[in-house]
Amino acid sequence: MDPIKTIAGPVSVLDRADVDTDQIIPKQFLKRVERTGFGEFLFYDWAQEPGWNLPPNPILAAGPNFGCGSSREHAPWALQDYGFQAVVAASFADIFFSNCTKIGLLPVVLPEAEVRALMAAGTAEVDLEALEVRFDGRAVPFQLDAERRRRLLEGLDDIALTLQQEDAIAAYERNRERTGPVTTAL
Fold first, then answer.
1. Tens digits of per-residue pLDDT, 113-123?
2. N or C terminus: fewer CB in 10 A for the chain?
3. Beta-bridge mates of residue 140
């Protein structure tokens, strides 16, 4: 995954609360395990409504409790494949939040009043290094735990983290070859 420092540009607005992962990417499109190709089905049912328009801008501002429902990892994949790099909301479902950070989609929690102001602003900059969202001449701080922040800043997914331990893993395997399997007494 690509490292994230700042994400800047227009803001797409999805002013709906409790958007669940089934609404983000409906079940009929979950027949693959690749991370790409899901963007065209993002919010599929809503996209059929007259007047629906959600441009693929870098930043999505959404209502509270975004990503609730099932734990499908396809939902962050679809958002990212559509073009979103950051999602800003007052709250997220825990598993959805975690799935976003594992693929390089930045979830940002701001107070609901600040999300509403961001929706009205139209453009913004999300600065992961400074942990702030800038819009309309303001800088609004946000929090992200140190490990997730490091992973996003350095572009480290689970595989890249494992590969950082490649020497230690190889040493362990060489040692296991010399000493044999671990056995336990019954």
1. 999 999 999 99
2. C
3. 133
